[in-house]
Amino acid sequence: MSMPFYVAPEQQMKDRADFARKGIARGRSVVVLHYADGILFVAENRSQALHKVSEIYDRIGFAAVGRYNEFENLRTAGIRYADLRGYSYDRTDVTARGLANAYAQLLGTIFSSGGEKPYEVEIVVAELGAEPSLDQIYRLTYDGSVGDEEDFAVMGGAAEVVAEALRRGYQRKLNLSEAVRLAVAALSSDSGPNAEKRTIELEALEVAILDRTRALPRKFRRIRGDWLSSLLADGNAAPAPEPEREPPPAAVAPAAVPEVGTTHDSPSSEA
Description:
This protein is of the alpha+beta class. It contains 6 helices and 10 strands, in the order H-E-E-E-E-H-H-E-E-E-E-H-H-E-E-H. The strands form 2 sheets. The chain has a 5-stranded antiparallel β-sheet with strand order 8-1-2-9-10. It has a 5-stranded antiparallel β-sheet with strand order 3-4-5-6-7. Helix 4 runs antiparallel to helix 5 and helix 5 packs across helix 6. The longest helix is centred in the first third of the chain and has 21 residues, at 68-88.
């Protein structure tokens, strides 16, 4: 009987990390940043059906990059976690910190397991506080590491280049229009500081906010169409009217949703 090849644990972890990083780098970048009245999410996403930015709970948003089927599993598991905790205790007990800890345990377990491949994802969980100083942005990587980001977070693609472009123009008190234009300009400069900026079409942008000025308990709102176009132009247009009754966060059928702490893996495309 042939003996299996021995691979040192350090080499095995390095190979798994390299595998995950390569998958994440193939995805298009996502930017999450604070602005004067909340938290802004901007992603380059040419799909109108597969969202990279979503709502998790009243004041909590979710953004991801990597393999769509994997971060969609994390999103729907996060909604289940939030709904269960909010129903069992109180809606104010659902926090981004608790959700980030649950995601960290799940991603860390998957990464260290030798029986399955690591998730090729990076995610951000952001929570809108009652005041700007209480806003929180947590960035989680493929191995379960958690970072508490102070001003902004960038994932996927040429993340370092985009982050440097953001750093040069970022201010904490940017209004919504300034923040959107800065984020789109940073995404456009992912070829490098000396390369010509490319143009990102309006249809290729996915933009959403956690809006502190919104009267409804749920603060998540998508920015589309004329509103987005005006923000990119001069920022003078009023927001789109609120719907009379807002639909709940989208989730897949219960049979297809894993619990936090379980895994599911199937072929899918990079997002």
